[in-house]
Amino acid sequence: MNITRENIDALNAVVKIDIAKEDYSAKVEKILVDYRKTANIPGFRKGQVPMGMVKKQYGKSVLADEVNKILQEALSKYLAEEKLDVLGQPLPKQQDEINWDSDSFSFEFELGLSPEFSVDLTSKKAITHYNIVADDKMIDEQVERIQKQYGKITPETEVKKDSEITGTFKNEEKEIDNTLTVTLDQFKGKATEKKFIGAKVGDVITLKTKGLYADDHELMNALKVPHDDAHGLDIEVTFTINEINSRALADLDQELFDKLFGKDGVKSVSELKAKIKEDAEKQFVQQSDQKLLNDVTEYLVDNTKFDLPAAFLTKWMQVAGEKEMDEATAKEEYEKSEKSLRYQLIEGKLMADNDLKVDFEDVKTNAKDMIKMQMAQFGQLNPSDKELDDIAARVLGNQDEVRRISEQVVSQKLLNLYKEKANIKAKEMSYEAFVKEVYGDK
After folding, report:
1. 207 forms bridges with which residues in the sheet?
2. Pick the CATH number of 152-248 from 1.10.150, 3.10.50, 2.60.120, 1.10.10
3. Are 317 and 330 in contact (CB under 8 A)?
4. What is the pLDDT of residues 4-59, one digit of tens each?
5. Which of the four CATH numbers 3.40.50.720, 3.30.70.1050, 3.50.50.60, 1.20.140.10 does domain 2-112 have?
6. What is the pTM of this model?
């Protein structure tokens, strides 16, 4: 067997594999001998079929199978030994119909090679890492929400400014039919509030969706429509009032504190506010870190320059999926996925350059931490190591979960790297200011 490589350019190569008779003849002969022992051909006893007849009936298919096995093994071994970092999979070059009566065969494979590049984390302009704090306004609003949630409900005959209104949004054309409880301060405009004041159970109020809520996400949740449908939605919906209640605020006393945090977990309003602040800011860290991860990723993709073997990858996409694509569709799919592919290469380069690895213990530890948090939400604060190990073993028995958790571990390792080496500036602000700066007034 002889293997040669022609480098077309830095990103494309062709590997040629020449297979000679001595590479396959012994294996083919052995398989045919085994076939002869078991062949069941009318007119001959089992094991007594002439070898010539066995070769005539099975020879070419056995030869083709064996050559293909040798070919795949040789190509895989060659790529590993030569340390060739290929993108996609090698593509066999089209050739005329193979003459299986020949003693030797030649096959060619196109390769798309991974580009060589370096990654610079030190951007000229510093990337912002937000330190989001729970300010007094947010904490006071959360205290009031808790008081409302645990307050006494009293039925009302008509809607007042502070009423809780349960009703159903409907629009037949868009198949909207969603029942929920709202308060008037959730709506964006005063005009909407005026339509509700004085209304009674059974009344039907017609509303325009445009400008009904401050942002599309609130509208999406209220109407239970997909995000894309909620964006810019401008239709009329009806709201049928089913129930009107007022809610007296619960007293901020020990009975309420014990309901929220267990006996004597919190003993004063100041401790309650401190607990709310602590819990909120833990969640804010996740949002802040995710924003930093997204921003650094965007920076790296935009500023790490390298070429890709686009023509090869487009051709590979044509045949890589379950259904073969035409050239135009494959080109469109490549353009959609190019940014993602670039980041995968950048991510791999960062992991290699900084010796970042993900092993099974990392995945298992992450899974146990996730399980521990979920159990805490249901009041199980001190699970045993055996409980955690048993649940983690079940979770990690699912390959999709292993893949998902592994991706989380990679993201965390990269995030730690960015915090250490990227050009980052800290910026402290309230959650309200963070949402306004990052997402605007949508």
Report:
1. 237
2. 3.10.50
3. yes
4. 999 999 999 999 999 999 999 999 999 988 888 877 777 777 777 888 888 888 88
5. 3.30.70.1050
6. 0.73
